[in-house]
Write a structure and sequence with these properties.
Distance between the termini: 40 Å
Helix content: 25-40%
CATH class of the largest domain: Alpha Beta
Number of strands: 17
CATH topology of the largest domain: Dihydrodipicolinate Reductase, domain 2
CATH superfamily of the largest domain: Dihydrodipicolinate Reductase, domain 2
Largest sheet: 8 strands, mixed
Length: 378
């Protein structure tokens, strides 16, 4: 690895911008073998908000034009809304700049395909940011499955439930617009679950042969607020509020997935279960330091605390029993991605654009299944 810091440019400074900036700041303290980085340029539309974000996040430059950032940095993070994923990411790759892009890869399958093709033509890493791959308990679960501890995989069940839209007067946001987001709970939450299922059991069950999907929008319009928080009108909601899907795998295994932003009482409930002929396991993001495992011959599940130094990444943090949290997944993700930039080797814990495109194919098939009322092959 070179001692010269990698200069980082970031498009977006809100939720994901803050999560990744925090990760970049933590790396030198806890992952000293990570490449040195300089938080260089942050990109957005509002110059005043950009200046504030740069000061808080430790970036030295700002710009309202993402093309300027691509020209100035070694690595480009695309953390903006879904509709700005394709063009800047493709431009960066064509310029030979590695890209880490938030999920879902794009609002549409065509745009995701263009991003996949640009990545294939580039000689630099291009990865889709599925941060739940980097939970130590998920890594442990993947090892158990790969080692055959569960036997033949027969069923996968995943759900991602939130309740931030239960109130019909919750304000309109870009995530509720099909042109900006592509889909609602399906792409925003379902992308995580579909990727995680493939990460855990894809090698065991093969690809997805067909899907059956159902999407529903419960509130058709939302209030638009002015700068003082007063309602100035209403805008249509053009994406789904919830989805369910059935999945048939090549091996004969079954999958059942769902997500909702209307699940009253669920704040960020991402749960996945895998059932095999010799055992089962289940994981919940709300208890992310734990993995429940049922082994052959046992009457019930064993709760395993994933905080030992032998667990992935945990030796970098605290003594056994001292738990880590959601934000640490981004530190792990940034560590692996930046090492891939420095070394040229992309480990399988990362999700290249090709994988992000395959997730998009499943999302698209679920949506088309709902529209046509029949099973669809991705």
């Amino acid at each position: 690895m070179t001692d010269t810091p990698l200069t980082i440019g970031v498009l977006g400074y809100r939720f994901m911008g803050k999560a990744h900036a925090n990760a970049l700041a933590r790396l030198p303290m806890f992952f000293p073998d990570a490449p040195a980085v300089e938080r260089h340029t942050i990109v957005g539309r509002d110059e005043e908000a950009l200046a504030d974000a740069a000061d808080r996040f430790g970036f030295t430059h700002t710009t309202t034009d993402w093309a300027d950032a691509i020209d100035a940095v070694d690595v480009f993070y695309n953390l903006g809304p879904n509709h700005v994923h394709a063009e800047p990411s493709i431009a960066a790759l064509e310029a030979g700049v590695p890209v880490l892009c938030e999920k879902p890869l794009a609002p549409t399958l065509n745009e995701a395909g263009a991003m996949r093709d640009a990545a294939a033509a580039a000689d630099v890493p291009a990865c889709c940011a599925f941060n739940y791959r980097f939970v130590p308990a998920i890594r442990h679960a993947r090892t158990l499955i790969a080692d055959g501890e569960l036997g033949e995989i027969r069923q996968v069940r995943g759900r991602y439930l939130q309740d931030w839209l239960v109130d019909p007067e919750a304000p309109w946001a870009w995530r509720m617009d099909a042109d900006l987001a592509g889909s609602g709970a399906l792409g925003d939450l379902g992308a995580h679950t579909i990727d995680l299922a493939d990460f855990l059991v894809g090698d065991a069950v093969g690809g997805i042969e067909r899907v059956s999907g159902h999407l529903e929008t419960f509130v058709d319009e939302r209030p638009v607020l002015d700068d003082d928080g007063e309602v100035e009108g209403y805008r249509d909601v053009t994406v789904d509020d919830a989805y369910t899907a059935q999945v048939a795998y090549e091996s004969g295994a079954m999958g059942c997935f769902e997500a909702s932003r209307f699940a009253t009482g669920h704040k960020n409930d991402h749960t996945i279960e895998v059932h095999g002929s010799e055992g089962s396991l289940r994981f919940s993001l709300e208890r992310l330091n734990e993995l429940e495992v049922l082994r052959a011959g046992n009457r019930g599940y064993e709760t395993v605390l994933i905080t030992d130094a032998s667990d992935p990444y945990v030796d970098r943090w605290w003594p056994p029993g001292h738990v880590i949290g959601w934000e640490h997944t981004f530190v792990h993700e940034n560590y692996e991605f930046l090492r891939s930039v420095s070394t040229g080797n992309v480990p399988d814990v990362l999700s290249p654009f090709e994988n992000g495109y395959e997730v998009q194919c499943v999302l698209d098939a679920i949506k088309r299944s709902d529209e046509r009322g029949k099973w669809i092959a991705p």
